[in-house]
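Preliminary data (for renewal application), zinc ion complex.
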Amino acid sequence: MSRFISIALTVLCVFGLSIASNADSKQWYKGSTHVHTLWSDGDAAPEVVVDWYQQNGYDFVCLSEHNILADGSVERWYPISDSGPLTPARVEALEESYGKRWVKRKTSDGREAMRLKTIPELKRRFEKKKDFLLIPAVEITSVYPAIHVNAINIAGLVPAVNFVGTTEGVISNLELVRSHAAKNSLMSVAHINHPNWQDGYSAETLFSIDGPLIFEVINGHSHVRNQGDDDKGMVSTDRFWDIVLANRLQRGAEHILYGIGTSDSHEYFKMGPKEANPGRCWVMVYAESLDAESIAVALDKGDFYASSGVVLDSIDVDRKGIQLSIQAQEGVEYTTQFIGTRKGVDTASSPRVDGEGEEIKHATQVYSEAIGEVLYESTSTEPRYTFTGDELYVRVKIVSSKEMENPFSHGGFESAWLQPVLVAAK
Ligand SMILES: [Zn+2]
Ligand SMILES: [Zn+2]
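Predicted structure:
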């Protein structure tokens, strides 16, 4: 990532947000904190998945399986079968790519199986060059309601709990990650996944939870409805973010919500808009070095942005405003929206109703359009916004004119989402 070495990031020194100055030694690292393999419901062997991310310019990846951690404490023999994802042809391809000694097969009761590689084995093979990092993680997957929370940088499995209330479920899972980190003297980070997957959860779910939170503002899975779904009463993840920010920040600056981008990749052989493929969305993390602790520390501080293709050369924030430099591609146009909510905004809400006027249960309520308004829009590749002082926060979304290489089924242009900046009074 040498092209990012000289990037300067200065985060506003108010309300306890972190600071990174021009003189620091930090760098940008590209990664995905949410990835699946055959260890859970992905369709490729873990070495194929890690190899894909390494070959495609990622600096780090977190294998985050559903409720299982391939840390070597468990062995898994996956059936080789023409009716499953691990076909004989795919095993032969593995032997060809990695060697026959690498691939372990056995036959018992007349069935053939292959042993899945563990994270320690994958680390030995793929971290050899020291410019790539595998971070142990898990997608804590509670069955009811369907809340998924990723725990990044863990020393063992963080088990899921099932519960009745959605807010209580999120709190319980976040608490599990906190206590795991304390017990193991680790910096573990949690993010709350895909608000609009299946029945989803409402923005109100996150209002009363204490402390900073991270949620997936963009998830590369094909079924997560980042754009919202009117029929189900789901707002877009952008609108969700502003509603949560406006309501949480009224409780105090420490209750910020950061937005992360992840791939949530499951399918590695068939590419297309209906598949959960790798590479659609990711996170750029501004960290001290490429090690799990540094990446987790940067995520915890909000020193990252989400991307589906747009990359920045610099992000400068001071008391006066936000100055960006977009890494422009030839022939591509960039529209930068500075989105915010003003202090004292009316956060009253009313129930969301369907076409027949019936209230949609568990849907995010309807709020004022003054929440998450576009304060200023620019088509410059060096856009600047000057604070007026009456903003509660300002966040940035950049949308390019370039269609994503492998878009969602509803399309999608390469974009970036930066973290909200809390604005001091003038
Ligand atoms: Zn999930
Ligand atoms: Zn997932």
